[in-house]
Amino acid sequence: MIDKIMPNRLDRGFERYQEEIEAAALRVLRSGWYVLGPEVSAFEEEFARFTGSRYCVGLASGLDALWLAFRVLGIGSGDEVIVQGNTYIASVMGITINGATPVIVEPDEFYNLDADRIEEKITEKTKAVLVVHLYGQASNMDKIADVCRRHGLRLVEDCAQSHGAAAGGKMTGTFGDIGCFSFYPSKNLGAFGDAGAIVTDREEIYRAMKMYRNYGSEKRYYNKVVGANSRLDELQAAMLRVRLSHMEEITGERREIAARYTERIRNEKLVLPAVRDGVTHVWHQYVVRTERRDQLAAYLEANGIGTIIHYPVPPHLSEAYAYLGYQRGDYAITEKYADTVLSLPMYNGMTQEEQMRVIRRLNEF
Ligand SMILES: *Cc1c(COP(=O)(O)O)cnc(C)c1O
Questions:
Q1: Residue 358 in 3-state DSSP?
Q2: Which of 58, 128, 289, 357 is deepest in the core (most CB within 10 A)?
Q3: Does domain 11-244 have CATH number 3.40.50.150?
Q4: DSSP string, 214-226
Q5: Closest residue by CA, ligand 1 atom 1
Q6: What's the CA-to-centroid distance between 57 and ligand 1, angstroms?
Q7: 8 A C-beta contact, residue 316 and residue 330
Q8: What is the 182 CA–ligand 1 centroid distance (Å)?
């Protein structure tokens, strides 16, 4: 009996840098300083440099990065924010937590926000565009940034899946006002618990974000605004620093795995992922598409290969957003993707032998 191939194996990613990660964790445990300290500051500096931003603020999660971004930009009740339909629900929650209304736009063939469909959705209430670099591929940023500029809209980027991906040589997270990152364990740059961050070039946003993450205070026990507790802790920051220092290798390995899939999968029933000219992809997910998705997933499962659907229910059809009043059929492309996409096993430390087993079954299907 051969082992089942899981869609993701976080233990493999840990083992690669185990000694360094354990040393970093021990250093923090022995230091006696556990929340917002020297490791967080060092990580913020290093992550800002990695993205090419002036500032980074460490937070407790990717969702916090999103909702705090709109909070700091003053976007809330009565405002509209444009977002793509086929994203993880956290993107939309980042908007609605503030009382703002998400306005859904269909994705393009690269699974990202379709830049040509933004303008038809702009109203006098539109305040911002939230672009999600889904599955790790940078979006069509030239066009999107241009639309935002021409209409005076804020631009926020959800980079939870795109650490290190770039468009036109410029890193995702640096095109607009605020770039939002998650370091949830399964992300390309993953912590060992929840963690997140924002990056920005604007000093006032940087200052506001530092205040908001710590109960709205700059000076202890003097609170200027109603903030949150969204502090990054020292343990996560120290371990993230280890992984960040190996980011080139981490991304490089994912690119090799993706290239092998693209080169060797030969099955007319499957639509393989394409990469837009001028952008890079860091392969958070390798997503194929087929009308026979459920049969394919069952076939792979029966042959010891696990897969995941990212995502089976688009936010506009989620029970959580029933109050927005959308119905099936409102966003045909988004819904088609939800019904046909399948993410293949993809993780750091995946062996060639494991990958060849996946490819063989895919070609057989
Ligand atoms: C993971 C993810 C988030 C949320 O990040 P958390 O750290 O889990 O809160 C937001 N947007 C996208 C696209 C994600 O993949």
A1: helix
A2: 58
A3: no
A4: BTTEEETTEESS-
A5: 160
A6: 16
A7: yes
A8: 6
CA of 63 to the centre of ligand 1 (A): 6
Cα 221 to Cα 347: distance, rounded to the nearest angstrom: 44
| Residue to probe by mutation, ligand 1, list 61, 64, 184, most atoms within 8 Å of CB | 184
- Give me the torsion for CA of 237, 72, 172, 60, rounded to 10°: 20
- Ligand 1, closest atom to CA 94? 10
How long, in residues, is the chain?
A: 365
Chain segment 11-28, per-residue pLDDT in tens: 999 999 999 999 999 999
Write down the domain spans for the chain: 11-244, 246-364
Q: What CATH number belongs to 246-364?
A: 3.90.1150.10
How far is residue 59's CA from residue 233's CA, in Å, rounded to a whole number? Answer: 9
Kindly state the greatest CA–CA separation across the chain. Answer: 65
Residues in contact with ligand 1 (CB, 6 Å cut-off): 61-63, 87-88, 90-91, 132, 158, 160-161, 182, 184, 194, 196
pTM: 0.98
pLDDT of 340-365, one tens digit each? 999 999 999 999 999 999 999 999 99
Joined together, the tokens standing for residue 168 give 């036109």
